[in-house]
């Protein structure tokens, strides 16, 4: 028991140190984003920081399979059932831009639930998830005149704390059994983002990334994410956004009665308003 607690503390400390290092890099970022061959006005623009805070809602559905200590449950809550069966989650997105670089930190807290029946057996599944994403985009270039298209490369990390609980009951027999498990994972990921300006005030971007790669016991077997987003500049400081986000994770450990697995896709529309300063 002491060993398990120590392991969890060690994982948490490692994730905390990664976040601290990332913040220090952000604060002390040198002026390598400057274009030495550009004009003075371009140099000033490249060396100026821009910060954006975007609180938003992710109205999600969840599909997949959850296994807790050998007991498997299928989770399938469609978008049509959102208002009745799903929790809404508040997500915050923090952005810092300078020149060709864009840094971000995104803490998420989600609580998803599903229930169903298999004959006379009732099955309730509850998943609590703390997700912290952090990383950076680097702009490779922008092409086109009337409808310019930009391409960014992406690298970062995704920390997961997942708590799964499966409740199985047979009301006719008065039987009930609860099992639960917790898991901490940290996935490195890489990806791309493509963006375009539809009008002076309206932009669209599409992001895709993939991570995990089963490189250790503390990473998922595979995780991926896809986001499509429209952004509208209401004013110089206020931004409104709407789009769709899908996030998939697949991990498995143990076997038999000790098997724990989480293979789900979380998806749904996102709505938010950001403040630029």
Walk me through the structure.
It is a single chain. With 277 residues, this protein is mainly beta. The chain has one domain (2-276): Beta Barrel (Porin), CATH 2.40.160. Helices cover 14% and strands 63% of the residues. The chain has 3 helices and 12 strands, in the order ααβββαβββββββββ. It has helices at 2-27, 40-47, 82-85, and strands spanning 50-58, 61-68, 71-77, 89-98, 101-118, 121-143, 149-170, 175-197, 202-211, 222-233, 238-253, 260-276. It has a 10-stranded antiparallel barrel. A hairpin with a 2-residue loop joins strand 2 (61-68) and strand 3. Residues 1-13 and 23-42 have low confidence and may be disordered.
How does the major sheet shape up?
10 strands, antiparallel, barrel
User: How much is the radius of gyration in Å?
Assistant: 21 Å
Q: Identify low-pLDDT runs.
A: 1-13, 23-42
Give a count of the beta strands, DSSP E runs of length 2 or more.
Answer: 12
The helix/strand series, from N terminus to C terminus, equals HHEEEHEEEEEEEEE
Report mean pLDDT, rounded to a whole number: 80
Structural class: mainly beta
CATH class group: Mainly Beta
Number of H- or I-type helical stretches: 3
**Could you tell me the strand content as a percent range?**
over 45%
Total number of distinct structural domains: 1
Strand order of the largest sheet: 1-4-5-6-7-8-9-10-11-12
Q: Tell me, briefly, the overall form.
A: elongated
Q: What is the CATH topology descriptor?
A: Porin
Relative helix content:
10-25%
The second-level CATH architecture is Beta Barrel
